[in-house]
User: Which sequence fits this backbone?
């Protein structure tokens, strides 16, 4: 059974998958940083808010013993206040679109690099050549 496991691990597909998962995780961190540190602040500056997670609607009562800010989404959520956090949803949708677009560009680039050069069109077949020779001899 140990030999079968070694053979399974040594197969190219498993190693390729492992490499893809590791690179994918690292790529995800890069794209998340791109989104959170560069793109979202730029969008926030355009629309007047830097942090979309502060966009929410309080759906229930705030506990009387709550001492935090009424504009702190994380603190209100931790206090158990029912919230409609549409700002965080907007952020996640933008993150998804950016990640999907980046993956699309990578796949497009990989396909372009892996594209085999087009083969020259095939010449006449052996039968066609023999037919041409026969016709030429008849003339």
Assistant:
């Amino acid at each position: 059974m140990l030999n079968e496991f070694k053979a399974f691990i040594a197969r190219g597909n498993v190693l390729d998958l492992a490499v893809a998962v590791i690179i994918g995780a690292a790529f995800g961190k890069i794209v998340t940083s791109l989104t959170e540190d560069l793109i979202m602040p730029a969008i926030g500056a355009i629309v007047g808010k830097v942090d979309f997670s502060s966009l929410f609607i309080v759906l229930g009562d705030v506990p009387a013993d709550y001492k935090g800010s009424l504009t702190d989404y994380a603190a209100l959520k931790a206090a158990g206040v029912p919230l409609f956090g549409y700002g965080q949803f907007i952020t996640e949708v933008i993150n998804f679109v950016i990640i999907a677009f980046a993956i699309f560009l990578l796949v497009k680039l990989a396909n372009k690099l892996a594209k085999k050069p087009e083969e020259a069109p095939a010449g006449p077949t052996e039968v066609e050549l023999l037919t041409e020779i026969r016709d030429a001899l008849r003339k």
